Amino acid sequence: MQTTLSEPGTATGKYGRLKNYINGGFTAITSGRSLPVISPLDGSLLAEMPCSSAADLDAAVAAAQAAFPAWSRTPIKERVQVFFRYKNLLEQNLTALAALVSEENGKTRGEAVAEIEKCIELTEFATSLLQLIAGEVLEVSKGVECRTERMAVGVVASIVPFNFPAMVPNWTIPNALALGNCMIIKPSEKVPLSVGRIALLLQEAGLPEGVFNIVNGDSQTVQAICDHPGIEAISFVGSTKVAKLVYQRATHQLKRCLALGGAKNHLLVLPDAQPEMTAQNVAASMSGCAGQRCMAASAMVAVGNVDDIIQRICAAARRIIPGQNLGAVIDEAAKVRIEKYITEAEQQGAKILVDGRGYKVPGKEHGTYVGPTVIDHVRPDMAVATEEIFGPVISIMRVDTLDEAIAIENASPYGNAASVFTQNGAFARYVIDRASAGMVGVNVGVPVPREPFSFGGWNESKFGVGDITGKSSIEFWTRLKKSTVKWNPEAGINWMS
Ligand code: NAD
Known about the structure:
Bound molecules: nicotinamide-adenine-dinucleotide
Radius of gyration: 24 Å
Helix content: 25-40%
Strand content: 15-25%
Number of helices: 16
Distance between the termini: 54 Å
Structural class: alpha/beta
Shape: globular
CATH superfamily of the largest domain: Aldehyde Dehydrogenase, Chain A, domain 1
CATH class of the largest domain: Alpha Beta
Number of strands: 22
């Protein structure tokens, strides 16, 4: 076994041919099929990522199964020590990790730094799990005690998307492992590098061999994970189309599954909203991470006359420059898809107020950039109003009443986030009560709940019970054991014991 991310000298790109991480070391992938990893920043080839074979997955599952008995029986107080050290290592390696995230995903350095800071916060939460999972005990009849304990589930899998190469993996890694599980993670084939670096930090933090394993691959590997009899539970984060496939396939195999899907998030802007704050929030929400956030504002419903705010949004959007304070979208296919949505909306009568199509960053002509785009007078039946675009685009619909705005939000099959911008507490509460979304914001453009609050949407943005982070994730990563105990012979016997 070698301790490098890749096989030096044998491959293409800056990082060479990637390996899996199994049983505490990097191991060569045995299949003949591989995919290129390309930096969206400039189109350069970063690595060659071989897709794992069934035998590669078997090896990872075997390593995790072998590690599980000792790790799951290690007291949680000891397990979380690994994550105190891991948190420190994330802090020490923040700059290098952020650079790698930016390089493979295309987001700006500042956004990548924020992503690693969020990894640190997620890990902080995991170190507090021992305070949260203490069970209950009660003398249920004379000399007889019942107690509950949270036990690990076993070997679990985490399947992750491209848009947060470090943060989404860290939604699952610290909590699942601190709670005693052993994990196989399948990174996105578009951004497989950061997870390899995370494995090295976990190793340095003292995580025992086999507790954390990486299996690289694409949809075929995901299918093999769903079908593998040695895997007990699967968390998935990605598009709704694939979330449905994974949820159905995993639960068909009688596995526990939590599958987070895509989103179409609505911002409801009322005429009494604070103009500049609202404009800044809308512009930042639709363009941050090049619009490739499942919490990004994608549709804005203007209630009544908010023309002044729309003008300010356009002014803010014009100050967001690709290659400077706006990163790249993930690949050429994404750029083509996003620009097609804009063109179709224009052809259907919508008005493009700020146009990000056809953008080239000087010196990075092979990068895949789309400028911020503001589309006004969008009708609720247009594709830009209903479908997830996943680019720096906001579609503005105009209505006369708050109820009409809520009806548009409620009609979406998704349900990740919704926000209302108003200075009126009663209107805000009205929207919180009626929005069909798992995460709601008031004067907040990206209403991601911070730890210990849990992350998870509703409707077609999430399949399964519970959320993926915070307190609500404890249920998913553990099983409840109930024991009934009698030690005292004088307790006697009655029908209840
Ligand atoms: P994706 O669904 O294409 O891929 C996600 C994972 O599934 C990857 O690891 C990929 O290899 C695998 N995959 C792709 N196609 C598959 C198939 N046919 N069968 C089995 N597995 C397959 O998603 P993406 O493009 O990487 O990420 C963007 C999507 O993720 C967006 O829709 C975004 O909203 C969503 N997302 C959601 C959340 C959330 O919390 N709800 C968070 C981040 C991203």
